[in-house]
């Protein structure tokens, strides 16, 4: 036991010490409560304001609009940053020397600029410039004029200008597509703006990133099937031809017949999408896709294909077109040049209306109709271009004798240029009709069979006669290539009903090379006013020049090289004797010739 | 008092001070990195701008109409259209 140690006696603590401790504690508590009251109630507004200055903010991350390119990646539409200057007029007017300096920098008349500002004195926000390249905007800002600020934005540029204007279309001021591919592919191009939450200090610098962010989804690039080189060539030749023939307009389409990819589409009048005032002109219409016309004689090969397919006619069948007129009820079908008894090839080469009407009436309305239907003349093209016109092909049960006869040579139905290109692509592609498209990598629908391969080859063979000295389209010949083609000269419907005597559409459609076609091209000149109006004379030469250029650029080998006359030399770059020898039209060069 | 009794509180307070300093340091590094990130983002925007400008410039310079004009007018070129007979003697 340790009981020996005495318990220390607890001395009583003085009462004041207890009160002192309690007093200090309650003083402390009172201070805390008082301070809280001061912060929460008395200085609340001030503190909230201070807090806002370094608030957590949600910043917008702008999304970049995707570019539109041609099939080789050349840009057709691009977004580039710009800055628009804006001003508070009253603040700027306070320092006149800045007004003058700024006016000079913006290429404006200082007086007019001052007047412009004075008129808008009451406003707090006035744009004082068009969107400028960032460098120019910085130069203007470096003047440090009071009340002048800049607003960043993206502007859309169209490097190809009017050459591809109607396909690409354009966007509005706030960057959404209004026309053409810009409109059709809006969802893909536009992208989605992202956001992130950050803490910013009073200078607006980001102090801390809270990592809560939604990444901006940039717009995807859209690649078209257009080849800008061919597009340019087509546009240039079309524009020249429209001017030369004093025509009202025109259009041209070049497509790859095997894949259905459209390599060029252009129409006149045109417009430059970089120039906003031109955007309201009629030039924005892509007439090749949006406008319909009566196809005229260009449907005759489709009719012949159907007649051959049915077995009613053979390639060797003869048709009597004498005396160049043919009465069907109240209608008299006329040929411009009566031909007598002809075979199908000559009927096409001379484009005999009487012959076509006789073929049509022989096979009957239903067969004519179903033939056109098989070539897609009654179905939309689904090219993916906004505002594509629908075809008009009435059902055969509504056709009488007269309608059957006129439909046989292309009147009484209306299609757009792409319909004809698609139908001819079927002939070019051994009967398989491809789906025409403008946008690359789009889900390709498999081609449909329109006619048998043998029929397609037979018709192609016949159409070679059009581009021969005997045919209507000799002006469309392309040196080195055999061309299968058809001319069409369509009389336009007048406003009063009936047909105009002197308003025509000259059409030329064909494929190159005739043996194994790769390209289909269509040229249409609307209301040529310089005398000539036959499709072969007006549209044919354009076809020839454009298709020759396209064949060269796509390196399509020629299929018809005549041996060059002796003692002449081919210019370098056209075709070497070795190439000719490969095509079997010329023996290998003897040493003498090679020299 | 036992000698060992003070050791734990001492060690804990040292650890508290050390971790406090580490927090300050990390915070500072965080700010520095955020700052750098901001700078790099700015740089990226600037480079994007420049890239867009350069693409535009290239497209303008290589525009077919311009190449066409220069080839024809300054260099005297033509398109190879057909056989051209350049002389009647080889």
UniProtKB/TrEMBL annotation, chain B:
Its main location: membrane. GO terms for cellular component: cell division site; plasma membrane. It is a single-pass type II membrane protein. It comes from the Bacteria. It holds the Pfam family FtsL. GO terms for biological process: FtsZ-dependent cytokinesis. Part of a complex composed of FtsB, FtsL and FtsQ. Essential cell division protein. May link together the upstream cell division proteins, which are predominantly cytoplasmic, with the downstream cell division proteins, which are predominantly periplasmic. This is Cell division protein FtsL. It comes from Solimonas fluminis. The lineage of its organism: Bacteria, Pseudomonadati, Pseudomonadota, Gammaproteobacteria, Nevskiales. The gene is ftsL.
């Amino acid at each position: 036991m340790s009981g020996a140690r005495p318990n220390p006696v607890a001395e009583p603590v003085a009462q004041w010490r207890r009160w002192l401790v309690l007093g200090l504690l309650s003083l402390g508590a009172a201070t805390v409560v008082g301070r809280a009251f001061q912060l929460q109630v008395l200085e609340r507004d001030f503190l909230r304001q201070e807090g806002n200055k370094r608030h957590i903010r949600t910043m917008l991350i702008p999304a970049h609009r995707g570019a539109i390119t041609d099939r080789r990646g050349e840009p057709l539409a691009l977004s580039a940053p710009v800055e628009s200057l804006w001003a508070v007029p009253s603040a700027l007017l306070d320092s006149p020397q800045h007004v003058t300096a700024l006016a000079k920098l913006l290429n404006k008349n200082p007086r007019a600029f001052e007047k412009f500002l004075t008129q808008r004195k009451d406003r707090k926000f006035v744009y004082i410039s068009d969107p400028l390249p960032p460098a120019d905007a910085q130069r203007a800002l470096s003047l440090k004029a009071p009340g002048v600020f800049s607003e960043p934005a993206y502007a859309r540029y169209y490097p190809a200008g009017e050459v591809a204007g109607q396909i690409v279309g354009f966007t509005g001021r706030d960057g959404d597509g209004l026309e053409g591919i810009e409109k059709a592919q809006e969802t893909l191009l536009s992208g989605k703006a992202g956001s992130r939450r950050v803490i910013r200090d009073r200078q607006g610098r980001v102090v801390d990133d809270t990592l809560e962010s939604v990444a901006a989804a940039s717009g995807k690039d859209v690649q078209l099937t257009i080849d800008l080189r061919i597009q340019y060539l087509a546009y240039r030749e079309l524009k020249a031809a429209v001017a030369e023939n004093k025509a009202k307009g025109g259009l041209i389409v070049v497509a790859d017949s095997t894949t259905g990819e459209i390599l060029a589409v252009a129409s006149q009048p045109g417009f430059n999408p970089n120039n906003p005032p031109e955007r309201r002109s009629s030039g924005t219409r892509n007439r090749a896709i949006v406008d319909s016309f009566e196809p005229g004689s260009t449907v005759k090969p489709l009719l012949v294909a159907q007649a051959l397919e049915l077995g009613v006619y053979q390639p060797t069948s003869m048709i009597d077109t004498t005396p160049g007129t043919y009465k069907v009820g109240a209608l008299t079908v006329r040929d411009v040049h009566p031909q007598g008894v002809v075979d199908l090839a000559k009927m096409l080469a001379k484009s005999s209306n009487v012959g076509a009407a006789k073929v049509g009436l022989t096979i009957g309305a239903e067969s004519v109709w179903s033939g056109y239907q098989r070539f897609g003349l009654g179905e939309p093209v689904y090219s993916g271009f906004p505002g594509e016109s629908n075809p008009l092909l009435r059902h055969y049960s509504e056709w009488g004798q007269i309608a059957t006869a006129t439909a046989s040579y292309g009147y009484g139905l209306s299609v757009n240029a792409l319909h004809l290109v698609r139908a001819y692509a079927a002939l070019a592609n051994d009967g398989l009709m491809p789906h025409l498209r403008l946008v690359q990598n789009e889900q390709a629908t498999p081609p449909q069979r329109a006619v048998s391969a043998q029929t397609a080859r037979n018709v192609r063979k016949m159409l070679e006669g059009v581009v021969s000295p005997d045919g209507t389209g000799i002006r469309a010949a392309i040196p080195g290539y055999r061309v299968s083609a058809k001319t069409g000269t369509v009389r336009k419907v007048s406003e009063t009903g009936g047909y105009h005597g002197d308003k025509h559409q000259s059409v030329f459609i064909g494929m190159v090379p005739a043996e194994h076609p790769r390209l289909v091209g269509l040229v249409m000149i609307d209301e040529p006013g310089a005398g000539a109006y036959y499709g072969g004379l007006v549209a044919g030469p354009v076809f020839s020049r454009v298709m020759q250029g396209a064949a060269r650029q796509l390196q399509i080998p020629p299929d018809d090289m005549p041996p060059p006359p002796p003692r002449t030399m081919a210019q370098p770059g056209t075709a070497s004797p070795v190439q000719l020898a490969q095509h079997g039209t010329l023996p290998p060069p003897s040493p003498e010739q090679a020299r | 008092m036992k000698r060992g009794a003070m050791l734990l509180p001492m060690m804990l307070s040292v650890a508290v001070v050390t971790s406090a300093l580490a927090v300050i340091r990390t915070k500072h590094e965080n700010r520095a990195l955020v700052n750098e990130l901001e700078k790099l983002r700015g740089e990226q925007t600037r480079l994007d701008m420049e890239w867009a400008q350069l693409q535009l410039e290239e497209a303008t310079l290589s525009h077919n109409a311009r190449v066409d004009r220069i080839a024809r007018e300054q260099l005297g070129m033509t398109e190879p259209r057909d056989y051209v007979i350049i002389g009647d003697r080889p």
